Amino acid sequence: MNIWHILLTLLMLSVLILLHELGHYTAARIFSVPINEFSLGMGPKIFSRRSKKSGTVYSLKLLPIGGYVSMVGEDETTFDEDGFSNKPVWQRMIITAAGAFMNFVAGFVLMAVVVMMSSGLGSTTVHSFADGALTEQTGLRVGDKIIAVGGERVFVAGDLSYEIMHDATEPVDLTVIRNGEKLRLHDVVFPTDISEGIEFGRADFSTEREAKNFVNVAKHTFFRSVSAVKMVWESIIDLLSGKYGVEHVSGPVGVTTAVSDAAKNGVGSFLFLTVAITMNLGVFNILPLPALDGGRLAFQLVELLRGKPLKPEIEGYIHFAGIVILMGLMVAITFKDVIGLFS
Fold first, then answer.
1. Alpha-carbon span 75 to 229, nearest angstrom
2. How far is CA 278 from CA 23, 108, 217, 229, 330, in A?
3. 132 Rama class: left (phi>0) / alpha (psi -120 to 50) / beta
4. Strand pairing partners for 68?
């Protein structure tokens, strides 16, 4: 890891945060909510400019660790009829969710680039086996089109690889199409690898290639994007269930190390990691946790269901507690990552 990789990480994270905040900003503009400030970064201001037309202050701050869109009436009831708190709850929900939505859109677009850059598009049809392949010995055959791994549907080689990695650490059932007939193969055994104490399943066969045309590129982009979101979501579930330990959670330092490794492997690897990170930002932000967009969405959903909001003071205290906890976790994870650099 060198200074260029650190700068590359900061640039990548800054762009993803900018896109996230642009989502909030754009949705607020659509619903005519006045913006007090649009800030990229935190801490002391490096640059600041006020729009003469709208009065919005656009700021660039020293620490590239976040950003925010400050809307009129966002934190308390305001007399401005266009203030955020005076908008219908469904409009506020759209504004709140728009940041995560932009992260998902960015991930989808970047995944399309990754797919178009790839040398070939893999199908789910078995082309050939490695020598001594366990899957061949336990029932899989050349020409089988795999359509499900352990009950999870697969459509392209990308999501097939993910399901094998996640679910095939033990014998797993496969659903295949063989000679036009759907078959269920029971207890197919895959080889496994261990990385940083975590066991993963690994495919011991290659798959047939598909033509790189518009339809197939769109198909691979969609299903690989869904797999990326699913990977993030299931990683959170696995963390909560104890399958993964806290030691496998990374903060900014860990992300920088991952970016460094990906950059060394080429543009494609770097872009795929960027997809994973922006999907991670999107999923994490919509979790129903205090201080996150998902926590605000949860309060707005309660308001929608009960017909009136909770007291602003109560919501404010809950979000403040969430900020303190999240900052504490970030410090602890960063400390862990730094210690890991020297171990």
1. 31
2. 13, 10, 20, 10, 18
3. left
4. 39
**CA–CA separation, 63 and 66 (whole Å):** 8
Condensed to tens digits (0 to 9), the pLDDT of residues 121-151 reads 999 999 999 999 999 999 999 999 999 999 8
The whole-chain average pLDDT of the chain stands at 85
Integer Rg of the chain from CA: 23
Provide the annotated active-site residues: 21
**Phi/psi at 159 (5° precision):** -75, -25
3-state secondary structure (DSSP) of residue 185: strand
* pTM score: 0.83
Please choose, from the candidates 270, 272, 292, the residue with its C-alpha nearest in 3D space to the C-alpha of residue 281.
292
Q: Are strands 172-178 and 181-188 parallel, antiparallel or unpaired?
A: antiparallel
pLDDT digits 0-9 by tens, 274-316:
898 899 889 989 988 888 899 999 989 998 988 887 777 777 7
For the packed helices 267-285 and 3-30, what is the interaxial angle rounded to 10 degrees? 40
Tokens 């993963």 sit on residue: 200
Distance CA 222, CA 46 (A): 39
Tokens of 327: 């900052």
